[in-house]
Design brief:
mainly alpha; 4 helices
Amino acid sequence: MDILWWILIFIAVMVWIAIAFWPARVAARKGHSFLGYFIFSLFFFPAALLAAYLIHDRTQVPPHTSGCHLAHGAGRRHHRLGLLRPGGDEASPHPRREGPAGDEDWPQVTRARH
């Protein structure tokens, strides 16, 4: 009879851990920390599940941000790939700012390798 309790406890712990992945995965899909929500859901599952569904989605691009070219998908992608210089480029509505000593203070822009 003692071994039966250990088996039931083991199964209960495995189910508890498996269920903790639910809020963590929802939060990760919305751009938040998977590990943080996983640990949160291990201790406070109902609160973590509610919080994961109510948090804002960080992966969505705002519909329009005062004409900034980085608010649109292509601008964000080019910025992430390193195709835009800090402060803008020729196609940018924002002029490129020079550093105090001129252009040499700015990092050289090269295409990011993936």
